[in-house]
Amino acid sequence: MLGTNDASDGYDEKSGKKDPYANMIKQKALFAPNYQSIIDAVKQANSRAEIFLVTPIPIQECIWPKHQEMYLAKLLPIIKKLATENKCEFIDLHKEFERFPEELFSTLYLKDGLHPNITGANVIASIIASYLRKKLRQ
């Protein structure tokens, strides 16, 4: 699961400025080739590996302004496209989390609004386990 830290505009809260080297969304063109190099490395290490590409969970109102859902939304289609092009399994955790009612949604995150808490981690594990059980039955 990659992408959450790439959904950043590089804003540094301490200086109040954007760091052009940490502005990942401006470097969005590098996301797919970098992700592809990871897929290629896994395939090279084990040609029989079954690779799963998993979208990150949504970004809530994050305490770090540089991480925003609107940036993550630009990366999600890239992950899906890479899964299709590379014949990888695709698990859309982002979409799965969006199905939760709003009042429950926020209970799945740490106070930072970015990372899942233990409940959220258990939900992620449950979704992935369910997907894997379905795969094993095929």
Fold topology:
Elements: E1 11-12, E2 17-18, H1 31-45, E3 52-54, H2 69-85, E4 89-91, H3 93-98, H4 102-105, H5 118-137
Parallel strand pairs: 3-4
Antiparallel strand pairs: 1-2
What is shown here, in short?
With 138 residues, the chain is mainly alpha-helical.
Please provide a written account of the structure.
- The protein is flat, with a radius of gyration of 16 Å.
- The protein is built from five helices and four strands.
- A two-stranded antiparallel sheet has the order 1-2. A two-stranded parallel ribbon has the order 3-4.
- The mean pLDDT is 84.
- The protein has a single domain (11-137), classed as Rossmann fold (3-Layer(aba) Sandwich), CATH 3.40.50.12700.
- The chain is mainly α.
- Helix 1 (31-45) crosses helix 2 (69-85).
Question: What amount of the residues lies in strands?
Answer: 5-15%
Radius of gyration: 16 Å
| Sheet with most strands: strand arrangement | 1-2
Cα separation of the termini: 23 Å
| CATH class category name | Alpha Beta
What is the overall number of helices?
5
Helix and strand content put the structural class at: mainly alpha
Helical proportion? Answer: 40-55%
CATH topology group: Rossmann fold
Q: Could you give a short account of the major beta sheet?
A: 2 strands, antiparallel
How many β-strands, per DSSP? 4
Uncertain runs: none
Spell out the helices and strands N to C.
EEHEHEHHH
Q: Give the overall pLDDT as a whole number.
A: 84
- Shape estimate: flat
Q: How many structural domains does the protein architecture include?
A: 1
CATH architecture: 3-Layer(aba) Sandwich
